[in-house]
Fold this protein.
Amino acid sequence: MAKQFEELDIWKQSREFCVDIYKITNYELFSKDFKLRDQIRASSGSIMDNIAEGFERNGNKEFIQFLYVAKGSCGETRSQLHRALDNNYINKDEYSVMYNKAFQLSKSISGFIQYLKNSEITGHKNLKS
């Protein structure tokens, strides 16, 4: 049972994804496109931050709302990966790896939302990690 958001698999997954985004945005060409670099860093960070914030709200209804925001940020990041590919900031292989990680993360968030919707648990102290 998760007692902290750091115990949630979707938060761990989103943290690793955010680290990966920071790595690719440090590439020379990518790092010079300040706007896109900052946008994709912010959207990937928003995924993990919204999972954490929703967890700390102590109720499923609000948590689910924040999970939807996190899922939206995941979609935003996928869109920005297209832009990075289109501008040759990352190659097709890097794009595919990152896109698939983002897509899997989005699916995991959706699955967790469904789990919470179908659960009789009303607060985070009883969640499975």
About this structure: The mean pLDDT is 93. The longest helix spans residues 60-86. The radius of gyration is 15 Å.
